[in-house]
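Why do we care about 3D structure at all? Because function follows from shape, and shape follows, mostly, from sequence. That is the central idea of this module. The next example makes it concrete: a single protein chain, its amino acid sequence, and then its structure expressed as tokens.
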Amino acid sequence: MFFVLACQGGDKTAPTEAPAASAQETRAEQGEKPEEAPQKKAAAGLADSLPNGLLLAYSQFQVVDGKATAKPGPARFDILTREGGEWKTEIVEDAQSNVLHKALVLTPRGQAPGILTLGGSGAYVKLWRRAKGKLQASTLWHAEFGGKFNRMRDAEIADLYGDGTPAIAVATHDQGVVAVLRQRVNKWKVERIDKKKDTFVHEIEIGDLDKDGTLEVYATPSEPNKLDAEAQHGEVVRYVPKKGEGPTIVADLGKRHAKEIYVGDVDGDGTDELYVAVEALTKGRGASLEILEPVEIRRYDANTAPDAKVIIATIPDRLCRFLTVGDVDGDGKREMVAASFSKGLWMLRPGKDPRSEWGVESIDRDSGGFEHAALLTDLDGDGTDELYVAADVQGELRRYVWVRGRAKREVILKRDIPMSRMTWNIMPAPVDVLTASK
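And the structure:
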């Protein structure tokens, strides 16, 4: 439980069960554990060096006598690259926060790219660049929101105003602030587009569901997190910064809420869709916790009513906080991977009618984490996506590739004390950006 409670930047729903294979009957196929070949065999087809690397954002906990404590350490992100046949890690810490919820590449207009980070307690948006080989940060936005917590929780980058300049849409805790950071020559202007007392905004996604050529921002406000994980009202809202519109409720989740959404064209019809990972409705807590309604993955198109329940898949778990999309087999069709809290990784594939039930199969039951950060991306540039997963319960960063239709698992990194870190996000980045001026 301290894995969450000790981190001021963490959520307040504590894990109550350990990942294990489930005998529960679901609509998913009962997948076998992926084949785990010896390290040399697993890496045999992997180039000695890759053009892209990973950014991993963490909260970390102090270790005493070989055990993780409830005391948080400084916020941290890692730069992971593959060079000379080995995975190499560069560690960067930020003592002004105790969690980094995300690290990603930002290229301001007319400037060199840098690494953008979202910190919690204190709440900082920072941009990191190298000076004399060392990464140093400049603060784009620091705020105290007036509630119990101060967290920059999520962000996405896009040309929201159609002026050729990237803007940063930011979600925060715990006063419901949603803001857009706009570049003004060498400064950044903060425009707060929403605020609601005692509200956690967990996620930001950007897309164009109505195909009018103007980008929309989607966010997931909810009531504050609860330890008992029972009814917690939430919704998905839309903003259109260029038009000054919002918030508009596009998904009313009633007694349930979502911490994860995905916006993009998954079914390949040329139009973006909104997918919402609705957390389970439960009763009780701890050993007596009962799932009344499991995780649902719902789909919303531009014309879907907010109270509609277009359920494309269910996951036999109570939390699902990562949806990632890519093409794992190179057939030109996109798949979705859902990383659930304690029941592993799930592959979702749209059928002939992508607005009805999708195919669901288990990728790996032996994988879990409170966030369970996951990313489909093509680090080696071969046109096929690999799956990277932070299995925090197992203390491993894993890589999956699909061979003859089956996932093959390789362990990239392993830590001796699994609970000493919590992975909040994984993002891809070009190696030349990560190592510039190193």
